[in-house]
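Objective 1b: paired records.
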Amino acid sequence: MSMNSIPKLSELLEQPEKVSTLPLEAVPALRGKLAELDTLLQMRVAMAQSNGSIVPVPLAGQPELIDSPELARRWSVPESWVRDCVRNRSGDPIPCVRLGRYVRFEWGSPDLEAWFGRRKSGANSKPEGRTRNRLTRHPISVYQ
């Protein structure tokens, strides 16, 4: 099946059985469009529930700016863990945008995905070249 003969999303909604005819290479792009549509629909509902205040919608392909509680929710970790990992002394801090005392994260940015990927792959959580060894930093003899 050529890329020109791939059914449109509207056709798939009307005739879901056409999904079985999709070439596998077309599935990721279609799922991306569905995720984008789902995000926009969720934002529309949230806007209606927040007394109609206007919420900026991120442009397609642009990272979404989120705060620490939202990042913690999406990664299913405590917010305090996110805040600890943002600090420069953490060795490999989470990439963020600092707006004065406010910290925001670019969800979908290559930097944030790379940082998360380093942890997901089971690799060492600290960047190469920086090791911490308390015994060599503060040698204390037990026989003193």
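Objective 1b, second protein:
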Amino acid sequence: MRLDILVPTFNRAESLRKTLQSFLRAQVPQNFEIVITVVDNNSTDNTKQVFDEMKPLFTNFKFEYLFEKKQGKSFALNTGIKNINGEIFSGIDDDVEIQSDWFVEVEKIFRERWDEIDFVGGKMLPNWETEPPTWIEPLKEGVIGWRDYGDEEWIYNYDTPILTGGHGIFKTEVFKTIGLYNEYVGCDGKGFVGGEDEVLYDQLLTHRKRGIYNPKLVIYHYVPAYRLDKNYYRRWLFGVGMTRHLAHTHHKPFAGATLFGVPRWMCRKAFSKIIERIKYGIHKNETASLAAENEPLVFAGYFYGKHLQNSWLDKPLQSVAAKLIKSHHR
């Protein structure tokens, strides 16, 4: 069996080095071929130098390099997928380190259960740069990517958490059915728009692909200090709203009732959370107050993407928002 690992990367040379070192430390089962491909997404730092320096160390793996000039994680992953030949595939982010038994667990799952599953996800645990604040809870699943869903296996569906970004393992053949990553969404290294994982997950379930959460698959996601910041969290939520608008425009149009061009359910949630934000602010409940900002900011991002982005008001609004964020009490 062959596993192809794609590592899309953009200007994170030293972080990439740590990701690659984690592959070298991991146990490799017999009769399991592993091909690792670094997909350089137009980096301007010393990413290629890191690849060249580490290439001689990969004596037990095929270690390859691709360059994708079109900026965006979805472009990088699609370029990689078009060039792989393994039975199974995983995209591992360049700020992730795998646990030492990760290859062993991946091989075991697909060898024993090939006819049962199409994709697998696992745990993503934080690797902190600095001690997290007491109000960390609202940041866990999004900004931080802290995905620990217990120690029991379960089946992915529309009512469960989605497949963990940067940690999914797939039968390569599924992409022949569901298509590649949607290139209208996804991180591009410039802002907070993402959504490639959410759209792919919807494609998997729409085509009735079978997936499981396996707690024995563990990776560690580096969390830099700058992400442990309330205003970073707020900008990220605004980006979530913009991403939802892009997904509704370029993936699956929203068919329900709208208000101001925004799904009405998003409007209702935003309004109710504004009331909660005021209440928790009065009671000085820092964690609950921050959590209540989620839906209003997502609504604002969606509204902005729908009506204001690239309009004559775009740059003035960005300037005002930057000043408000800078002066906002953390």
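The radius of gyration is 20 Å. The first helix runs from residue 13 to 25.
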